[in-house]
Amino acid sequence: MKKLFSNFFTLIGIWLSLSACEDTLVGPVTPNNPEQNFEQLWHEYDQLSAFISVKNINWEALYAQYRPQVKPTTTDAELFKIFTEMLAPLNDSHLTLLAPGTPPMQYDGGLAGQLKHEDFSLKVVKEHYLTEAIEYSPSITYGKLAPQIGYIYLKDSGLDEGYYQKALDKIYDYLKDTDGLVLDLRDFEGGYDKNSAYIAGRFATTKKLFMTSRKRNGPKHTDFTTPVNWYVQPEGKNQYTKPLVILTNRWTTSSGEVLLWALKAAKPVVQVGDTTLGAYSDQARRELPNGWYYTISINDIRAVDGKSYEGIGIAPDILVENKKAEVLAGKDAVLEKALTVVH
Question: Where is the Tail specific protease domain (predicted)?
């Protein structure tokens, strides 16, 4: 699991806790100086990163470019800048570098470090579009957009499978008389891939392959485990088989993108909104001798077409981008477009 937190101190607080797709790896003690911190960061990416080969990165060339810039007198600010410049070519929106201090420093790789949360508001959906808004939990809201059109908002898939089984059993009973459904995955933070497969299975009628995954497992950049096939299949006591429209934005990420792949394999759907973030891999979490924290993406996740969409994302069938001013005024153009499509 990978969740994107905007608050620096929240990130520090949860860093060492267990999560679904992050492994904390403990290595040998390394002397704490700028040169040794650089060496550890570079070598651990060299040994663990899946993206060096997936994205055809010349990691040795980056060492040759940036290692000479690091000296015993290099300041923390200078070292942090060198690190971010060296890591930038990975274009990894799951990559985080955290440097506690006064002031603290934080780097988020890929698009995650460039985007703002300003194109979606669940409050707008609740207050201006739902005829009835029911909050099952802080991460699940459902209701109806019209007498025959249902709506489900999912924020993550990070709880246990039984939670989603009970939630969808209750929601499907509520939506049993609808003729179509809008599934809102905007600002989906992450979760467990197995839960995403289960949720998609509540829409499936047959078993279908939807992705493959393999993990970096050796010193060579091309060393990976044998690929694992991921399937979506009918799950639970019943499935929603009526028309489905899925809403996405740039903050639909990680297991939310896995869920989208699984849904597209499970049944015909229409994706409306913006391209997803493009961040699929699990991460290893590491700590440098100077107390800085960082993540390394260790998996190669592929769609059924055999391609990696890391740093690319999943493009919508119908592109609609909400504007900040419109959202602030209570308008959701993405949802309005979905209402013209679902039938």
Answer: 117-321
